[in-house]
Amino acid sequence: MNPVMVIAGPTAVGKTPVALDLAEKIGAEIISADSRQVYKYLDIGTAKPSRSERQKIKHHLLDFLEPDEIYSAARFAADARAVMDRLDEQGKRYIIAGGSGLYLKALIEGLSQIPGADENIRRELDSLLAAKGKGALYEMLKELDPESAQKIKPHDAVRTIRAIEVFRLSGIKMSQWQRKERIRDKRHYRLVVLNRERDPLYRLIEIRVDRMVAQGLFEETARVLRMGYPPDSNSLNTVGYKEAIAFINGATDRNTAAGLIKQNTRRYAKRQLTWFRGMPQAEWLEVDKSGGLEKIAQELNR
Fold first, then answer.
1. Among the three residues 143, 164, 179, which one is the final residue of a domain in this structure?
2. Cα(103)–Cα(72) distance, integer angstroms
3. Residues at the annotated binding site?
4. Bind-site residues for substrate
5. Largest Cα–Cα distance in the chain?
6. Which residues are annotated as a binding site for ATP?
7. pTM (2 decimals)?
8. For the segment 165-208, what is each residue's pLDDT rounded down to a tens digit?
9. Which one of 155, 179, 203 terminates a domain?
10. How many other C-beta atoms are found inside a 10 Å radius of the C-beta of residue 149?
11. Would you say the C-alpha torsion 146, 150, 155, 156 has a positive or negative sign?
12. In terms of DSSP H, where are the helices of 67-197?
């Protein structure tokens, strides 16, 4: 069986045009590995493929969740495998493209059998977060699972809550679960990570943010809020939307919000690269040294 092509890399590096070009060349469909493009109504801020691009190449795992739903790496891995199974039965080719390192790690390397989310525990911990802040949750985690606490930054409330939730559900520490044998499928994956020098990548990030704002990022955010979705939804508590919400609430002005989006997107890109550097099977391709995006698609098609 040929390895499954996975095109990854930091935000704005050029994953989408390479994936589209390659998919057209080999007659493949695209499975998205983006943790935010799964949500309906969030189009501009997640840089979803355009309608014309999606009409040209069929995409999977886009636009199927409400903005207040919780999605996880484990669920992504299961969903992606289900899509691949179906396409295999139909005799269709596919490639995976996206920048969510945790999701790709779950798919490629497998996951331990960690318990799923529990709504009651989540609500309890969310209430504690609102009442006492991230510090109180982090102190709780240090008492329950010191090893996991060392790996999680004190301000990362999402991972802190998840680690506490796992212990409350199973009585087993997250750090212990992560050492258990992982569940994998029988597929082999070819992980190609696109990269650029820092300054060119940062310029592309600035251009992308300016384009998002011009296309209506703040208006899109306001529309989703008017639909009744809470501003602390996981999908909205992300780069681009949280700064837009601050602007909508009058906490900052438009230019400052745009500047913060650029700054936080640069930081996010650095975190993405850190994830991919921790995946030893990754093949790194420097876009600017490889003749550009079109040449990369041609190279991957050989």
1. 179
2. 8
3. 9-16
4. 11-16
5. 56
6. 9-16
7. 0.82
8. 999 988 999 888 877 766 678 899 999 999 999 999 999 999 99
9. 179
10. 20
11. negative
12. 73-90, 101-109, 119-132, 134-144, 146-151, 157-170, 174-177
